[in-house]
Write a structure and sequence with these properties.
By secondary structure, this protein is mainly alpha-helical. It has a 3-stranded antiparallel β-sheet. The protein has 20 helices and 3 strands. The N terminus is likely disordered. It is a multi-pass membrane protein. InterPro entries: MFS, MFS_dom, MFS_trans_sf. This is MFS transporter.
Length: about 550
């Protein structure tokens, strides 16, 4: 057979006879799936509960101020940097083993966060927790190795969308805990969750005997992790530092330089951390491109929608500012004049509902998360019948539509709920399609690192989306002006900024940017040649 006649599939790897749960009862198989998926949810679970509680956590660390955002930044930073390393180590040393190590790291970090009053130690705890971000990417490979083929596509679709803990339980439980207890209760709950799930993983989930027999390319792993980390630092802080300042873009330049060094070195290494020929093959490259575009949409929506919902309504803002004017007048403003106080704003903030974290869960997260949870498994099963490319097309189409709807129509509770359902459909389809496309494109012995690279792309793109939105918001700050006929008050005389609030134009421009990414992603999905055949659970690729 000539080179031109070689089919575009990787050579199958010999599979150990004890690798799969063939012949196991459905109860055993579904139990294994449920435990692994619950474990893989811990990173998303903490993000939903903890990231939204930043305003409640900040007062416990005096002097931190705006740097409180580092509690979220460091989680994404360390998680993105360690995901490819853990993916590769799972290929070498076992996927369940690496999941357990990530769980142990998460538990130690969570305990530190629950107990400490030191900001430095708190960040150390968050960094240790972040290792668990690798769990879903490692779980893809574990399912590929141990489940019967027919269960793999749907199970992979469920990994990212979960069984409802992060999508349904976390917003409601997190809001309830914050309303009744301190923010530390969030970390105690997370610690209990891990303490329950980890023993179940040890006792009931088998380890895969499949191994890649090579040494760990430690230099390559560290170069890749550091390069990704530097780029993420720039994307996470560029808006604060100034995108064009040398001290800011120097991080990005250094990160890109390290990634180029990584590519150059890996070409010459006999046992690279990642087969670059496979990484840059058309199948894998197209999947990573689509994943990048889809994750930009997720990044923009994940950051904007909670803030939009929790922004005070126009009436609430007017009342708050009027009360502030009265308080600062020190009795100089007669009660009879209060109704004459007029508050003018520089732009509309019609998106604000004034919801609490619990309200955000009830108005939006429950709808998007619940729909995504159902769509993930359904899209995975659909991929098994028609190929994962079709769920990807649905994902990009619904991402685009939902983002456009948010940009122009998300101004009431019922609109938020309806649009959240549309986005949830795309979210579930996306996280069923992308991992299944990777599984079908790579050999089993490179599943961990390949899924790790998918995780890196997702993290970088999410940060790109968040950074772009931040730039649009910074250009459209909300400001107010007080007018009191015949009375001079300390707040009159010009417009004053409202910290943390932005006008409709800021969010709309960011959402339109995301819609553009979704539209390009739709074109990529339509043109993609890979994924047009029914998903096999990795059988064709080994």
């Amino acid at each position: 057979m000539t080179q031109a006649q070689v089919p575009d599939v990787a050579s199958p790897d010999p599979e150990p006879p004890t690798a799969r749960l063939e012949g196991a009862s459905r109860l055993r198989i579904f139990t294994v799936i449920g435990i692994v998926v619950l474990f893989a949810e811990i990173a998303a679970l903490q993000y939903t509960m903890v990231a939204s509680a930043a305003r409640d956590i900040a007062p416990s660390f005096p002097g931190v101020g705006a740097n409180i955002s580092w509690m979220v930044i460091i989680f994404g930073l360390v998680g993105a940097a360690t995901t490819p390393i853990f993916g590769k180590m799972s290929d070498l040393w076992g996927k369940r083993r690496m999941m357990l190590i990530s769980g142990a790291s998460f538990a130690v970090g969570t305990l530190i966060c629950a107990l400490t009053s030191s900001w430095t130690l708190f960040l150390v705890g968050r960094a240790l927790e972040a290792v668990a971000i690798s769990a879903p990417t490692v779980a893809y490979g574990l399912f590929r190795d141990i489940l019967p083929r027919r269960y793999i596509p749907a199970s992979i679709g469920v990994i990212a969308t979960g069984l409802g803990m992060s999508a349904l339980v976390a917003p409601l439980l997190g809001g309830w805990l914050l309303d009744h207890y301190s923010w530390r209760s969030l970390f105690w709950f997370l610690l209990i969750f891990v303490a329950v799930v980890v023993p179940l993983l040890v006792l009931l989930v088998p380890e895969t005997p499949l191994r890649t027999h090579q040494r760990l390319d430690l230099a390559g792993a560290l170069t890749l992790a550091t390069g990704v980390g530097f780029v993420l630092i720039y994307l996470s802080n560029g808006a604060t530092w100034g995108w064009g300042r040398p001290t800011a873009w120097g991080w990005a330049a250094g990160g890109v330089a390290l990634l180029l060094v990584f590519i150059a070195v890996e070409h010459r290494t006999s046992q690279p951390i990642m087969d670059l020929q496979l990484l840059f093959s058309p199948k894998v490259t197209m999947v990573l491109l689509a994943a990048m575009l889809g994750s930009i949409v997720i990044g923009v929506q994940g950051y904007s929608i909670p803030y939009m919902l929790q922004t005070p309504s126009h009436a609430q803002l007017t009342h708050l500012i009027t009360s502030q004017v009265v308080a600062e007048s020190h009795g100089q403003l007669p009660a009879s004049m209060v109704p004459m106080v007029h508050i003018g704003f520089t732009g509309l903030m019609a998106y604000g509902l004034g919801a609490t974290l619990l309200g955000y869960g009830l108005h939006s997260a429950v709808f998007s998360g619940g729909t995504g949870m159902l769509a993930g498994g359904a899209a995975g099963e659909w991929a098994r019948k028609v190929g994962p490319r079709y769920p990807l097309i649905v994902a990009m189409a619904t991402f685009t539509v939902s983002t456009l709807l948010y940009a122009f129509y998300a101004h009431s509770a019922w609109q938020y709920a309806v649009i959240a359902v549309v986005f949830g459909l795309g979210f579930g389809s996306f996280y069923a399609a992308a991992p299944n496309l990777i599984v079908e494109a790579v050999p089993a012995r490179q599943q961990g690192i390949s899924a790790g690279m998918l995780g890196v792309v997702n993290s970088l793109a999410t940060s790109i989306g968040t950074a772009a939105l931040t730039a649009f918001l910074a250009a459209n700050p909300a400001q107010f002006k007080v007018t009191i006929p015949g009375v001079s008050a300390s707040l009159t005389g010009g417009y004053h900024p409202i910290p943390g609030l932005y006008t409709d134009n800021g969010y709309r421009n960011g959402l339109l940017f995301a819609a553009g990414a979704g539209l390009v992603g739709l074109v990529v999905a339509v043109l993609m040649r890979h994924g047009r055949r029914p998903a096999t659970g990795g059988e064709a690729s080994g």
